[in-house]
Amino acid sequence: MKTPKPLRAAALLAVPLAAGMALGVAPAAAHVPDARPAAGAEDVTLTNGDNGRTLDIRTGDGVKVRLKGSRSRGVTWAWSVPTSGSPSFARTTAGTSQGGNATATFRAVRPGTAEIEAYQRCIPDPGHVCAQVVIPWKVTFTVREGARSGLSLLDLVGRATDRVRESDPQAVLLVAAGDSPSGPTRDMAKVTHWRFIFNNRDNSSAEISGDLDGSLGPVIRHDSRWVGALPVDEEITMTPAQAYDRLEDAGHGEAFRYVSLVKPMGTPPWHLQYHFSNHPGGCDGYAVFVGSGEVSPICGK
How far apart are CA 38 and CA 187, in angstroms? Predict the structure, then answer.
């Protein structure tokens, strides 16, 4: 059975928050048990324009490479699968597409100097001729020991819940609304400011803001319950970065400023979703279903 698309009402549920805060690749994947992300790890996303860069990262950080091919006058300029010969990196997924795109993900597993490389070459259609040119692409890394400080969203959800439940032990989470203070981004580690809305057992609601540096603001109580969403009463099994990976795989790799975690009300069955948008509560973005990974426009268009 196909997962139902989000309803327009789901996109509007975050509007009250705005007053206080602006709310066909063929994979060749291999699981690498020793390449698991560490607590506080960050992901770096690299594209065609990052050729020649030099970056500092830490062990546990991830690197996503998304190279886009092109078509011109009967030829395809196609990328090879990105590779690294350095023991500092473990490659966890890789793939190419008929349109010339190539993708790969890596995890930094030990300190050192490392490079990730790929090349682009011309592939002719029948009856066409290609220039015998190979275009290199390379990014150099200095991998340093030690995970980054800071929390994950799931850690922050736990801390916020504990704080709110000090005054109401039966409070339930309805919305987690994230913001990238530096503006639209493709790096979900930059979505650092989050606001959490809870309903309490006495028909009141509570909100609390926090940052991935571990800080939490005061609990603010309201005399009415929050409507427009169902309780997040299940285990959160997907991070914002993993949801954005699904979004990229579906061809929506643009930058977003706002990320929200919500189970919108509407026609059942109801499903927990991440919403990616550039307007608080807007219809301009996409929903990623936490359980299935399916991607759909927020407003079901």
Answer: 17
